[in-house]
Amino acid sequence: MKKAFPPLLLAGLAAASLATISFLKSLHCRSNFFASPDSYTHLCYSDIPALFGARGLDQGINPYSDPLNSMEYPVGTGYIASTIARFSDDFLTFFDLNALAIALLFVATTLLMARLLPKHWPLFLFAPASLASLYINWDIWGVFAMVLGIYYLKQERFDLSGIWIGISIAIKFFPIFFLPAFLLYFFLRSRESERGTSGRSFFLYLLFTVVALNLTTAISHFEGWSRFFTFNQDRGVDLGSIWYALSLLFDINIFSLNLTIALTIALIALILLVAIYPKIRPLISAQGDPYELFLLASFLSLAFLFSVNKVYSPQYIIWLTPLSLLLIATRESNYRVERAWFWIWQIGEAIYHLGIWQYLAEYSGGQGLSEPLYALTIVIRIITLAGFALTVARVRLSLPSKEPVRD
């Protein structure tokens, strides 16, 4: 009798193959030195080669030493980029080395998803929007650390989980918005456990990031370190956001954007709290599954952030996809409905992926997409994401407290 093909080996080979296919679409841009509008027209734009010379990475200096031209990313990304730059003679070599690292991390992330979801990991692998956005930026570094942190959280190895979530925050900052989810998780766990790990484990999630990476850079290069925060605070309405769509469709210009976003978040959060709390309270009282509620709160937090933020970059989908699959695979009930909405949402993201590059091609002097049509792709993305988020939230909050886990 023939032995079954090892599932993890199959996942690794499939991930490597798709990462290679995704890289092949970058070859046209590489051969044309990532020139615009050609890179937009052929859907192979990447931030990576552009930042090699623009941020002094080619000079081998600390990416945060120049307060006026430092990396506009958290310190983890800056140090990853600057380390790879030391082995690069030019921006094409820099892109190639980064692409190799990204492909390896994509394979590693797929293997983690296969461990977490033995039956359903191909949904992560074949998600079209995330695969198309793989080489745009360094996000997969943070996503790998995030998924590894969730893997250890599921195993209740809180120290390792905290360290990896901290690394993910240091790379791309997004998991800092998991704070309410972690509070909920450790609160629920403290109610069903007498081991007293909740407080120490929770603070470890913050301690590693602050001490090991951010604090040291903040002390030595404060102005360069703080550029990520000041850049995002000072930036105006930008590509992909609902605010950008409103400006294109209705010529609405929001002057106090930070205040408007803060008030919008507060208002929507209050409405959701009023609507959802009656559903959450019985789950808390009945000691609902802390891990499942953590996944739900984490996904909704990022989905909400990406819907009201000043900017939405195409690669952000890489963060949402693994979270969504980990969430919908925790229950058997209504799985088909959630999976259908997952693909509707992925199609919406794919439409936006096509839209932004064709719009930028038009904006750069080529032939592409008009402003109203690009705004429409933004609206489609947000509506399909909202539909999926509302579906998984409704299902999770209406099912009994605990059911057998499929995977």
Q: What do you see in this structure?
A:
The relative contact order is 0.11. The chain is an all-alpha fold. The protein is globular, with a radius of gyration of 21 Å. It has one domain. Mean pLDDT is 84; it is low at 400-407. It contains 20 helices and no strands. The longest helix has 29 residues, at 257-285. It has helices spanning 7-24, 27-31, 38-41, 47-54, 75-85, 91-116, 122-125, 128-132, 139-154, 158-172, 179-192, 198-220, 222-225, 227-234, 242-250, 257-285, 290-308, 317-328, 335-363, 371-398.
Q: Which features would summarize this protein structure in a list?
A:
407 residues, mainly alpha, 20 helices, 0% strand, disordered C terminus
Question: Tally the helices: what do you get?
Answer: 20
Structural class: mainly alpha
Largest sheet: none
* Rounded average pLDDT: 84
Can you give me a brief rundown of this structure?
The chain has 20 helices and no strands.
How would the blueprint of this fold be written?
Elements: H1 7-24, H2 27-31, H3 38-41, H4 47-54, H5 75-85, H6 91-116, H7 122-125, H8 128-132, H9 139-154, H10 158-172, H11 179-192, H12 198-220, H13 222-225, H14 227-234, H15 242-250, H16 257-285, H17 290-308, H18 317-328, H19 335-363, H20 371-398
